[in-house]
Amino acid sequence: MRLPNGYGSVIHNKNKNRRNPYQVRITKGWTDDGKQIYSTLGFYKDKKTALEALAEYNSNPYDIETNKITFEDVYKKWSKEHFPKVSDSSIERYGNAYRKYCKSLYNMRFKDIRLTHLQGVIDNCGMAHPTRASIKTLFNVLFKFAMKNDIIDKDYSKYVDVGQREGKINRTPFSKEEIKKLFENVDKLDFIDTILIMIYTGLRVGELLDLKIKNIHLKERYMIGGFKTKAGTDRIIPINRKIEPFIKKYYEKNKDKEFLITNFKGNQMNYSNYRREKFDNIMEKLRMKHNPHDCRHTFAGLMDSAGGAGAGASANKLCIKRIMGHASQDITDDIYTHKTLEELIEAIDLI
């Protein structure tokens, strides 16, 4: 049976060793001298199956090149477009989720990926809830990107189950005695001052490691940094007098580099290395039991205690929200935005 012009064709490959010898070709254009330019739809085990695939394509044509895109291709296309817009720590989180846990999906056509494949990655990763949530977040953004670019027509990522968070996370603030001990060991242990910087700024580890030299304003006593939430992104962080020497030390050391805190090569330090080689090592040497987020929890407690009573306490609570990057429902955005640097510095110096 002769197929209509422009319909496509089925070619039988004579190679006996080929498992799927029937090639389906689609005309994708013409050369200047009138010759057809073909694109391969696929290879099939028999002529009947090949003709059925060709008929299905003609009843609902699609972009053949898009149809071949793999999970790896989508990640590369998405990251090229998305990464210039986000922080280095966000890039690291997405990259870790992709490199460490998604290898089984790399070569799969994106259109063939189903919920069972995604859930399998989550169920077999062997990690706690935060990591499972990070993997799902990666799935969410990739499927959204694929939908936007007509690579797929259904988002399976929304159905992925990461389970419940394992128990309540205990936050234990540093005691006054422990803070004093940290100060006493500043000249004895490298990077111990970074812990004090977090305690007196409320910065998360990722936010500390993402601070850029160009955003450090020593003379005016403030920094610009932060991410994660709309209210927390690029916020003003006043510099407490107690940690001013530490900020200045890192600034002078790295003023010709991009980041305030760097590794031994002068590059930005990643979270895992900082946590394992610096923070946990210091905690072990000082016989303290804390995780990095306890620094932020300590800051909130110190600021709250320093507020006093009455109107002063209320004003201090607004400063806490502003410095920590918390959204506020009890004040308007206009008032919140115009909280002056002087007020923030005054509040931070209370601790």
Written description of the protein model:
The chain has helices at 47-59, 64-67, 71-82, 88-101, 115-124, 129-148, 176-184, 192-199, 205-209, 244-254, 271-285, 293-306, 311-324, 333-337, 341-348; strands at residues 9-12, 22-30, 36-44, 216-217, 222-225, 235-238. With 351 residues, the chain is mainly alpha-helical. The chain folds into 3 domains: 9-61, no CATH class; 71-159, Tyrosine recombinase, N-terminal domain (DNA polymerase, domain 1, Orthogonal Bundle); 176-348, hpI Integrase, Chain A. Helix 4 (88-101) crosses helix 6, helix 12 runs antiparallel to helix 13 (311-324) and helix 13 (311-324) crosses helix 15. The radius of gyration is 28 Å and the shape is elongated. The termini are far apart. Mean pLDDT is 83; it is low at 308-315 and 330-338.
Quick recap of the structure?
The chain is mainly alpha-helical and 351 residues long. The protein has 3 domains: 9-61, no CATH class; 71-159, Orthogonal Bundle (DNA polymerase, domain 1), CATH 1.10.150.130; 176-348, Intergrase catalytic core (hpI Integrase, Chain A).
